[in-house]
Design brief:
heterodimer; A: 314 residues; mainly alpha; MetI-like fold; two-stranded antiparallel sheet; 2 strands; B: 288 residues; 74% helix; 0% strand; globular
């Protein structure tokens, strides 16, 4: 998403200048040809994505369910949102998930990238293996990890028993441990993807910087602190934003792995939108929750945009 | 020069230390690989066991006797063939439409200058930044009013015209030198001819990236089919897999057999087209 924004910016600079009179015919021709290329995709896009995005804003201010006609009610949906226990729980759970998922994935991905950014026999195999979970279907991931986390017979708890932990957690059957189980699963799934981004960042650090640090007598740890970490700062920031946005949108893993349970222990925002809007048919109220989710994502995206701008100027 | 360099280094002093670092590195690598691969080992191992042998203490990583019959039985115990056919149909159709309309529209955005073009492209990019959960309700209402819920049409329409394909292809087209299109224009080729005969053949890597990413995304998609497809005979593999779970007497071995079957095609595609995956994902910095 970060690159998306920088990309538009780049084109904005190269915008076509206003047409000269003698060019007018050519401009008209180009417009027709241009639109003819874009139209097949644009028709689908406008009706099925653009219009719903715009409609979502309007719906949030309406009272509309599956049976009645829509009615404008101003901010009432948002007032309801503030007092709805389920939505508050969903918001809290989403934040909890992000607070675990973001730092752990960054650590795991960075660790993998540092480990795999060298010429070793089999390094290509390791990279591929680390990436593969990211494109494994969420259903397969969720059902396998549910079995691994089985409180009585699962390998995770058998391992914990073996190293002397008496009261191993009940994982997905426990209201306290269900979310940590989801977090572990999602870190395992996502770390390979962010590893790829970190690897690209590591390879962009000039080799001469390391050589210079060596000449100055820096040991491996000092080189890591003085060269690697500062060199990775832009990538780390990008990863931080992407991961946080991804965490706020968490949906399918939860639906398959715990379905929000036990109780409402793992209910998250996306699921609350689905339940209110599609299951209950409360279109207006669900759209208000959608706007909340969108606002959270937007703030992050704009931060990233602002940061990129500042970095390009300096 | 390089020979002098290595010869000048005091090898004997660094040798043992290097050796130890190497051993530690490999130990770390193997530990990481085990952590990454264990869920897959469990999946394959459980898929080849009897159901009552899946959960044992201690864990049996290699089945006592291999139940290859699981892979034959699954086709008769559940409508696996129907699920597979539906998944293939949806993935192929959506990928084809996305690549076709995406690469066509991208040409308009990358190679033709006309007023309003950049505003339009901004609308595309802006929607990528909006989480789809935020507009899933209006989309659902629309599909419901059009009577398209519980049909393949709804999913094809929703996923075939995404902004992602246009974005990915446009970024690639911008790297193709303008002189090529100019030369072709001088030779009298129309814009459509330039797209078909010059730009498309040059963008095979990007087309491969887009096709693979779209195919895998559609194949793995759970939420789309979950929201829109209710009839069992329209279900995809992912919905089918999910439906094995949840009943009290869950057939664990069969669930894992189904998982292996659903992951195998993706593994094959990944092994063949790994390069395009990583490139596509790294250049777009998004998905998911």
């Amino acid at each position: 998403m970060a690159e998306l924004l920088t990309a538009t910016q780049a084109t904005a600079g190269a915008a076509p200048s206003p047409p000269q009179p003698r060019n007018r015919r050519r401009t008209r021709r180009n417009t027709l040809i241009g639109w003819s290329f874009i139209l097949p995709n644009f028709l689908g896009f406008a009706v099925l994505t653009l219009a719903p995005v715009i409609a979502a804003f309007g719906l949030a201010f309406m009272d509309w369910d599956a049976y009645n006609t829509p009615e404008w009610i101003g901010l009432k949906n948002f007032q309801r949102l503030l007092h709805d226990e389920s939505t508050k729980i969903a918001l809290r759970n989403t934040a909890f998930y992000a607070a675990g998922h973001v730092p752990l994935t960054i650590l795991a991905a960075l660790g993998l990238a540092l480990l795999l950014n060298r010429k070793l026999a089999g390094v290509r195999f390791f990279r591929a293996a680390a990436f593969f979970p990211y494109i494994t279907s969420m259903v397969a991931v969720a059902v396998v990890w549910n079995m691994l986390f089985n409180p009585e017979f699962g390998p995770v708890n058998q391992f914990l028993h073996a190293i002397g932990i008496e009261n191993a957690p009940g994982w997905t059957t426990s209201t306290t441990w269900a979310m940590p189980a989801v977090i572990v699963t999602s870190v395992w799934r996502d770390m390979g993807y962010y590893m790829v981004l970190f690897l690209a960042g590591l390879q962009a650090i000039p080799q001469e910087h390391y050589e210079a640090a060596k000449v100055d007598g820096a040991n491996a740890w000092q080189r890591f602190r003085a060269v690697t970490l500062p060199g990775l700062r832009p990538v780390t920031f990008l990863v931080l934003i992407l991961l946080t946005v991804q965490s706020f949108k968490i949906f399918d893993l939860i639906v398959v792995m715990t379905d929000g349970g036990p109780g409402r222990a793992t209910l998250v925002l996306s699921q609350q939108i689905y339940r209110q809007g599609i299951v209950e048919g409360e279109f207006g109220y669900a759209s208000a929750i959608s706007l909340l989710l969108f606002a959270m994502v937007l703030v992050l995206t704009l931060t990233q945009f602002w940061f990129n701008n500042r970095r390009e100027r300096s | 020069m390089t020979t002098v360099d290595t010869a000048a280094r005091p090898r004997s002093a660094r040798g043992p230390l290097r050796q130890i670092t190497r051993i530690i590195l490999y130990a770390l690598l193997i530990a990481a690989a085990v952590a990454i691969l264990i869920p897959f080992v469990w999946m394959v191992s459980a898929s080849l066991k009897r159901n009552n042998e899946v959960f044992t203490i201690p864990v049996q990583w290699i089945p006592q006797d291999f139940q290859w019959s699981n892979f034959a039985d699954i086709w008769t115990q559940v409508p696996m063939a129907t699920y597979l056919r539906n998944t293939v149909f949806l993935s192929v159709t959506i990928t084809f439409l996305q690549v076709l309309t995406g690469s066509f529209a991208a040409y308009g955005f990358a190679k033709i200058r006309f007023p309003g073009r950049d505003v339009l492209f901004f609308a595309y990019v802006a929607t990528i930044a909006v989480p789809w959960q935020a507009y899933m309700i209006p989309q659902y209402i629309m599909m419901q009013k059009a009577g398209l819920t519980d049909t393949f049409f709804s999913l094809i329409l929703l996923q075939a015209f995404g902004a992602f394909g246009v974005f990915l292809m446009r970024q690639y087209y911008l790297t193709i030198p303008e002189e090529l299109s100019e030369a072709a224009r001088v030779d009298g080729l129309s814009e459509y001819g330039i797209w078909a005969r010059i730009i498309l053949p040059l963008s095979k890597p990007a087309l491969a990236s887009l096709a693979l990413l779209t195919f895998v995304n559609t194949w793995n998609d759970y939420m789309g089919p979950f929201i829109y497809l209710t009839s069992n005979d329209l279900w995809t593999i992912q919905l089918g897999l999910r439906s094995f779970v949840g009943q009290f007497d869950a057939d664990y071995a069969m669930i894992m057999t189904g998982s292996v079957l659903s992951v195998l095609p993706i593994l094959t595609i990944f092994l063949v087209g790994q390069r395009y995956f990583i490139q596509g994902i790294a250049t777009s910095g998004m998905k998911g």
